[in-house]
Amino acid sequence: MQLIQYATSFMAISQLLFMALFYLVYYRRQLLGRLMAFYAVCLIGYILSTLPEVDSGPWSLNLALGILAVSAPAVLWVVTRYLFEDDPKVDPLIWVGIALYIGLSIVGNVTGVQEGWGYWLHSFVPQIAMLGLAFHVVYTAVTGLGTDLVEPRRELRVPFAITMGTIVAMIVGSYFLNLTERWIFNLYIGVIFLFILFFNLVSFRVHRDSPQLIDPVVTPPQPVPPLSERVSDKDKDKPLIDRIHAVMENDRLYAQHGLTIGQLAASASVQEYRLRRLINQKLHYRNFNQYLNQYRIAEAARRLQDPAETHLPISTIALDVGYASLSSFNKAFKEAHGVTPSIFRSRAPQA
User: Fold this and answer.
1) Partners of 148 in beta bridges
2) What pTM did the predictor assign?
3) How many H helices and E strands in the chain?
4) Are 123 and 324 in contact (CB under 8 A)?
5) DSSP 3-state of 91
């Protein structure tokens, strides 16, 4: 049975080494590539820490492997932000929370407290934090599927959520379940191996589109420029893009709450997959919400400068152009114009 444990552990570690080397060889100059490699090292640290020889080895080695293991969910969460979010900024308070839960885990490993409040604080709380990060990884990867316009990134979302989120959840679960039966633990490591193998195959398949996937060129929000500046008149797709633009402008589709790219495709009589490619590759948007924001912010800016609408609350204009809340409108507007809507309105010339 111990031989099977070594075999499954070796297979899982070999796939993780392949993942680390793959990202270091092809993407070492990108932060995302280095983060993926470090995440693989964190998982290797966790698997090594489960081997009997290592578990009974030097205290310093166990501590180092334990730090890698508890860091895996945090590293994966950061990877998810940089991979699937076009604005991967992280609130400083979140960094503090991550550092706190890792610190509590380290203190628990050093003190070895097994009961009382110390055990709950140093062991149970960090595990809950790790599980929360794992669920948020899955949530981030899945919720953006409908608005993502980068095709290779869309292809990677579901496999990423299934494999990486499940692996971290299994690591956390192993602490709570205390897997003492050797055959169950071997099966558990074998499942991790299969998940990593599956993810490596998917990563290799989308590798041909890696420049678009891993080197995002984020289009900053701005008023919608004339189509002539976006697409050449000689472009064969120009008539179709003109039709899409006309539908958006004439019918004010962008003002519909919860407008999906499927609904826009139906209104413009174009296949959804083709519409995704046009907006992404011709108009250079990576996210459907970015595309909608250009129309919404442009109309909102015009109305905020209109003396005839000075009596209207900003929230009314925000809801009327398609935003679900005033906070989301304020954030998008400030990104586009550098000031809040209220300041923008106060600077408008008076009639």
Assistant:
1) 287
2) 0.79
3) 18, 0
4) no
5) coil
Q: In percent, how much of the chain has pLDDT > 70?
A: 81
Residues whose CB falls within 8 Å of the CB of residue 212, separated by 6 or more in sequence, listed in order: 150, 151, 152, 153
- Specify the CATH class of 2-214 in words: mainly alpha
Of 94, 98, 169, 91, give the one whose Cα is nearest residue 134.
169
pLDDT for 213 beyond 70: no
In angstroms, the CA 344 to CA 348 distance is: 7
Find out whether 193 and 8 touch, Cβ atoms under 8 Å. Answer: yes
CB-hemisphere CA count at 13 Å for 341? 25
CATH architecture of 227-346: Orthogonal Bundle (1.10)
Q: Compute the mean pLDDT over every residue in the chain, rounded to the nearest whole number.
A: 81
Q: Which residues of the chain form CATH 1.20.1070?
A: 2-214
How buried is 181 (Cβ within 10 angstroms: 0-12 exposed, 13-18 middle, 19+ buried)? exposed
- Phi and psi at 274, nearest 5°, equal -70, -35
- Report how far residue 295's alpha carbon sits from residue 299's, in angstroms, rounded to the nearest whole number: 6
Q: What are the tokens at 242?
A: 């003109």
Listed in order, the ranges of the chain carrying CATH 1.10.10.60 are 227-346
Burial call 250-275: b when 16+ CB within 10 Å, e when fewer: eeebbbeeebebeebbebbebeeeeb
Angle of CA points 324, 138, 194, to nearest 5°: 160
Closest CA to 123 of 188, 55, 176: 176
Exposure on the CB side of residue 116, measured as CA atoms within 13 A: 5
